[in-house]
Amino acid sequence: MKTNDQPEPTVFVIFGGAGDLTWRKLVPALFDLSQDRSMPADFSVIAVDRVDLSDEKLRHRLHDGVKKFSRQGTVKTGEWGEFAGHIRYQQGDFKNLQTYATLGEQCAKLEKEWGAKVHRIFYMATPPSMFGEIPKYLGKAGLARDRELSRIVIEKPIGYDLESARKLNGILADSFAESQIFRIDHYLGKETVQNILAFRFANPLFEPIWNRRYVDCVTITVAEEVGVVHRGGYYDQAGALRDMVQNHLMQLLCLVAMEPMVSFDADEIRNKKVDVLHAVRPIHHDAVHQYVVRGQYGKGWIGGKGVCGYREEDDVSPDSQAETFVALKLFLDNWRWQDVPFYLRTGKRLTRQVSEVAIQFRAVPHQAFPPEATLDWQPACLVMSIYPDEGIVLRFQAKHPGPRMSLRTVEMQFNYQDTFAARSPDAYETLLWDVMKNDATLFMRADQVEAAWRLLMPVLDVWAAAPPGDFPNYAAGTWGPEAAQGLLAQQGHSWALPMESVGRRAKKGTRA
Ligand code: BG6
Q: Is 224 in the pocket of ligand 1 (CB under 6 A)?
């Protein structure tokens, strides 16, 4: 989280510096930070990769990425030129100690030039197969030794299951202390996700009713309109449970359900979050089908256009069993949440893109109004919209004007675009800035990653043993398989209505 001070001199080493993540996310975010004067006065970006490239060619490619993805909109030539002067390219094999020796020399040279201790950030923007290699070489080359100055950044996926996550965490821990390891879940960098903490704990209003006495159920939806785009090869091995639930949805669950933190210390907040995962009631192997629904999209219609089914996507097996949709029902065994269902769902090729958390409140204990007054009655609901409509809506009952007592559902709204004139930073800006400031609050700790895998292992085991017989089981452009509605209907619940009206970008949609 940001304070006002600038980071100290920093060398940003990006392994996979010629790759897509660097081009699309990392360099545009660093550029935007530099435009906001949030980069240190002395910094250098060293892009390391195997391909043969010159500094000039790399800068040209990165300029293109900045023009496409920077928050600044237009990128002035002078501004880019000034920033690009900080970027250099180093060709090297990630599995060759010499690559790391050269990096060490570069860092020492910059330290001398700047006359200061230099923070060294090693970012693994590589395919996951390299995650277990690079830390070993950094360790061997002595580049991990300084616990204050050296940091390593790793993107999800952190492992493929509990065992591989443990192994990877072990490899990281062989060379780096936990305080030096920054595991990115980009959801935590989103303004609206950070705002869940602000909303809950900076206001006295809702916390007293944020519990089983007043909350009937919680729904968390992360729906995407897109399919697998160009990532069929990766996705077909992963599926939605690994790709989205193990990380992004579990993080949202933790923020919504955690106890108030005592201080804004990274470990204090992360302890409170991991407590939530420890409280989740385990899903037993023989009950997986009662608590979890999986789906895969077939062909359908999105935005008036016909789209192909998942099995027809590039790099996807024609008889793929990978799930592109998951819905789960979870319970937390603790005082605050006992018996309150948390319903989580995520999927690709759904009706539209929407990420939101809805707290659905219980009905009043006694309904004193005449039946005809309550024909439109809906329980009160607080919707925290993460994306694309960034804001919060409270739905409640109000008296409809007129001589009769008649109740209608109305909304009170807050939206980011109207309230704050500035455009929200991209999640990566926040996260990269935090890495430079050595603030791990928004990053996943090893125990949290493992706790999330542990919860999901029975589901992965059961699914692996019993391939679905009914895939594809939802048409692209719908809200997923029918069974996902049934999961809630058993308890008399339904998925909250996606928030239509908060943001200016809101589109008219259908009921989910
Ligand atoms: C990534 C997943 O972590 O998150 C993708 O690998 C998914 O499959 C993406 O599309 C969603 O992120 P966002 O920020 O667009 O909601």
A: yes
Residues of the chain with CATH 3.40.50.720: 10-155
**CA of 235, closest atom in ligand 1:** 8
Q: Which of 194, 220, 226, 244 to mutate to test the pocket of ligand 1 (most atoms within 8 A of CB)?
A: 244
Asked if residue 389 has its Cβ within 6 Å of ligand 1, the reply is no
CATH code of the domain made up of 188-508:
3.30.360.10
| 123 contact partners, CB below 8 Å, separation of at least 6 | 12, 13, 14, 15, 26, 152, 153
How many C-beta atoms surround the C-beta of residue 82 within 10 A? 11
Pairing of strands 325-330, 342-347: antiparallel
Q: Determine which of 122-126, 240-244, 505-509 has the lowest per-residue pLDDT on average.
A: 505-509
Q: Which atom of ligand 1 is found nearest the CA of 387?
A: 16
* This prediction's pTM: 0.94
Q: Ligand 1 in contact with 49 (CB < 6 A)?
A: no
Rg (CA), the chain: 24
Catalytic residues: 248
Kindly indicate whether the domain formed by 10-155 is annotated with CATH number 2.40.170.20.
no
Q: DSSP letter string over 37-87?
A: T-S-SSEEEEEEESS---HHHHHHHHHHHHHHH-TTSS--HHHHHHHHTTE
Instruction: Name the segment(s) of the chain with CATH classification 3.30.360.10.
Output: 188-508
The reply to whether ligand 1 has any atom less than 6 angstroms from the CB of 356 is no
Which pairs with CB-CB distance under 8 Å and at least 24 residues apart come from 308-311? 308/227, 308/476, 309/472, 309/476, 310/227, 310/228, 310/348, 310/349, 310/472, 311/472
Q: What local confidence, expressed as pLDDT, does residue 8 receive?
A: 92
Rounded mean pLDDT, 65-77:
89
The tens digit of pLDDT for each residue in 278-288 reads 999 999 999 99
Interatomic CA distance for residues 232 and 239, integer angstroms: 10
| Ligand 1 atom at minimal distance to the Cα of residue 238 | 6
Residue minimizing CA distance to atom 10 of ligand 1: 224
Q: What is the mean pLDDT of residues 99-122?
A: 95
pLDDT in tens, 322-363: 999 999 999 999 999 999 999 999 999 999 999 999 999 999
Does residue 506 register a pLDDT over 50? no
Q: Give the Å distance between the CA of 126 and the centre of ligand 1.
A: 17
pLDDT in tens, 260-304: 999 999 999 999 999 999 999 999 999 999 999 999 999 999 989
> What integer pLDDT is reported at residue 511 of this predicted model?
36
